[in-house]
């Protein structure tokens, strides 16, 4: 590593600059001369850098957000770009991108998240449980199931099955979550709805009584904050439920003011999420929509932050827009971030961006996204041989690294450590199930999750080896990935739990793992290796699919505490902190 630039205090000062503020950019390098190559107002400027101890530096105002730049080293006749050395000047896409404030709050950098699907984590109050036949959903009576009763996944069965999980159940298990090492809870929707997933809410300003209502929410927020933990809610602002009063007014009276909040077509149909008629899309071309959902005092974006939520995960963030499309999407996302920060300067707002995150994140919109395309998808394809759709794929170790590196280096500097990395979620099959129950490969997936740059998100139950009930030959994510948490500890995989706790502890207590940049180390057919670096600390991470010899300098094995060096034989995960 001769030349290095990433988001750490030596390289960027201050780390969170204001627009127009003077900043210092430094390059760690043995070179004694170099230039900053800066894209400014459509022109490329070449500015000489000053030699300092450890590298080169330059001071300049933060002209724009993002600020786009790279470096040129004349003695080596090369450019240092975000993804490495290049002989020719690259496209702007390969430049470093630095954002102005507002951006990621410090508490979210490398933070350990835990995602809970509320109906399935724990039933803390059986008295508020939905009852079989209590209401109809899509023409079918809902079903109350016993906690350990298997999920059904026939047509239409998914959303009508209720198990009684609630916020009081989460409250009861905060000791468990804190002992695990969790710092942030991310909850799937908690609003009143006819479905168990609650992505089709009929009321955006209150908690579903079947989850304990507003009183349980207040107690949960208070208890979390007392422990120093945070709460992120699922913000469903692309669409609402068709039973919501606003949509019902629009449906029955085309002249009602509420009708302008939706996109109706000449044939009487309307824009809906993926065409699902229970999920009509909001039209943000209408000022009333913006006022009612995002901007006004009582808009849910503001309301729940004032109530104590610490941020938002925005459902299908890339789809929000005008006229049933994603038109003006970036402006809408900026407004959500702006209004959240107005209510709480430390609010975090990240999005569900399943595919290419770059057009959105480089537009100075969000604090990050769920890292499917740049982490979860390639990693699990490499380990399982199938993608999220169940298609057979063949991702080599080289292709895995190329994808991880490509996405990492393309991110704005401030967002590299706040991307929500994951291996499972409520929308995709559980990682252990995708690996056909192979615990060692699952532990390797957890190991990469908790040593790679970003804010790792555990999906409830992954830490105890929660699987899915359907056979592997019957590919299914939703709803089978949403099984109930088994609180009988005899059903837990204690080996996985101990492993997960150890990895979380290392993530939280090793600065290079929590905040550090990423550099390539070693890639071969069955071995992935990468470096994490922060403020002089260097950690090497290896993931070996079969027994492999690696050469190490003097280092501490962070998994065992032993001092090692020279030739080391590895299988699975290895984490080594170099000794200075």
TrEMBL record:
Pfam families: Alpha-amylase (PF00128). One of its GO terms (molecular function) is alpha-1,4-glucosidase activity. SUPFAM superfamilies: (Trans)glycosidases. It comes from the Bacteria. Gene3D superfamilies: Glycosidases. Its EC number is 3.2.1.20. Residues 115-507 form the Glycosyl hydrolase family 13 catalytic domain. It is an enzyme of class 3 (hydrolase). Keywords: Glycosidase, Hydrolase. InterPro entries: GH (IPR017853), GH13_cat_dom (IPR006047), Glyco_hydro_13_lg-like_dom (IPR004185). This is Maltodextrin glucosidase. It comes from Meiothermus hypogaeus.
């Amino acid at each position: 590593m001769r030349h290095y630039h990433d988001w750490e205090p030596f390289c960027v000062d201050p780390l969170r600059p204001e627009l127009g503020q003077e900043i210092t950019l430094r390059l760690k390098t043995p070179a004694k001369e170099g230039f900053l190559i800066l894209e400014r107002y459509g022109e490329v400027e070449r500015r000489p850098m000053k030699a300092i101890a450890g590298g080169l530096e330059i001071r300049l105002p933060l002209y724009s957000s993002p600020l786009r730049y790279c470096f040129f080293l004349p003695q080596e006749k090369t450019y240092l770009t975000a993804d490495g050395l290049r002989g020719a000047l690259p496209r702007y896409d390969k430049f470093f991108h630095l954002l102005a404030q507002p951006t990621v709050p410090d508490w979210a950098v490398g933070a350990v998240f835990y995602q809970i699907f509320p109906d399935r984590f724990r039933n803390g109050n059986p008295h508020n449980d939905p009852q079989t036949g209590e209401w109809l959903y899509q023409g079918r009576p809902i079903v109350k199931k016993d906690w350990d009763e298997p999920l059904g996944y026939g047509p239409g069965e998914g959303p009508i099955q209720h198990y009684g999980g609630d916020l009081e159940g989460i409250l009861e298990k905060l000791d468990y979550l804190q002992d695990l090492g969790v710092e942030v809870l991310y909850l799937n929707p908690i609003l009143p709805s006819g479905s168990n997933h609650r992505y089709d809410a009929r009321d955006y300003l209150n908690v579903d009584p079947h989850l304990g209502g507003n009183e349980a929410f207040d107690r949960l927020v208070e208890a979390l904050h007392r422990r120093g933990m945070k709460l992120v809610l699922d913000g469903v602002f692309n669409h609402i439920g068709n039973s919501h009063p606003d949509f019902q007014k629009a449906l029955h009276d085309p002249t009602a003011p509420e009708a302008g909040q939706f996109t109706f077509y000449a044939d009487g149909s309307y824009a809906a999420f993926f065409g699902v008629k229970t999920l009509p899309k909001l039209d943000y071309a209408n000022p009333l929509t913006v006022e009612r959902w995002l901007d006004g005092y009582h808009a849910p974006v503001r309301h729940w932050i004032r109530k104590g939520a610490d941020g938002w995960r925005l459902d299908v963030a890339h789809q929000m827009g005008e006229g049933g499309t994603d038109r003006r999407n970036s402006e809408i996302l900026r407004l959500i971030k702006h209004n959240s920060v107005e209510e709480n300067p430390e609010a975090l707002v990240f999005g569900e961006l399943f595919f290419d995150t770059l057009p959105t994140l480089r537009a100075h919109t969000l604090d990050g996204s769920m890292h499917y395309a740049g982490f979860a998808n390639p990693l699990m394809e490499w380990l399982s041989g199938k993608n999220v759709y169940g298609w057979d794929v063949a991702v080599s170790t080289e292709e895995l690294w190329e994808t991880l590196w490509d996405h990492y280096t393309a991110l704005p500097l401030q967002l590299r450590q706040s991307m929500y990395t994951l291996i499972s979620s409520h929308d995709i099959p559980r990682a252990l199930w995708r690996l056909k129950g192979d615990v060692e490969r699952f532990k390797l997936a957890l190991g990469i999750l908790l040593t790679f740059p970003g804010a790792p998100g555990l999906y409830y139950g992954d830490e105890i080896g929660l699987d899915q009930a359907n056979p592997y030959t019957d590919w299914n994510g939703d709803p089978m990935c949403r099984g109930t948490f088994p609180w009988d500890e005899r059903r837990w995989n204690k080996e996985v739990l101990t492993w997960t706790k150890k990895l979380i502890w290392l993530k939280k207590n090793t600065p290079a793992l929590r905040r550090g940049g990423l550099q390539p180390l070693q890639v071969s057919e069955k071995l992935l290796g990468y470096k994490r670096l922060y403020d002089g600390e260097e950690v090497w991470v290896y993931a070996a699919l079969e027994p492999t010899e690696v050469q190490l300098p003097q280092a501490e094995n962070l998994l065992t505490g032993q001092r090692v060096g020279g030739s080391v034989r590895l299988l699975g995960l290895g984490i080594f902190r170099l000794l200075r």
